[in-house]
Amino acid sequence: MIILRGIKELSVSETASILHWNENKFRITYHRALKALQKAKEDFLYER
Q1: Where along the chain do its domains lie?
Q2: Residue 46: its pLDDT value, please?
Q3: Taking the chain (48 residues) in consecutive chunks of 10 residues, what is each chunk's mean pLDDT?
Q4: Are 10 and 21 in contact (CB under 8 A)?
Q5: Cα 24 from Cα 39, distance rounded (Å)
């Protein structure tokens, strides 16, 4: 999901279609994934 949307820059509808999800489910899950990655980044930098 992160690779398809964030790196390959596919649209929300294209990415949702590939994953066989509806667009709303994709948007919510993508938003949560980005928040989790940001927290992991902050935790990693804090521990260093």
Answers
A1: 2-47
A2: 85
A3: 95 97 98 97 87
A4: no
A5: 23
If 0-12 CB within 10 Å is exposed, 13-18 middle and 19+ buried, where does residue 5 land? buried
pLDDT, tens digit, 9 for 90 and up, residues 18-28: 999 999 999 99
DSSP string of the chain, one letter each residue: -HIIIIIS---HHHHHHHHT--HHHHHHHHHHHHHHHHHHHHHHHHH-
- Amino acid letter, residue 40: A
Compute the distance between CA of residue 30 and CA of residue 44 in angstroms, rounded to an integer. 21
pTM score, two decimals? 0.83
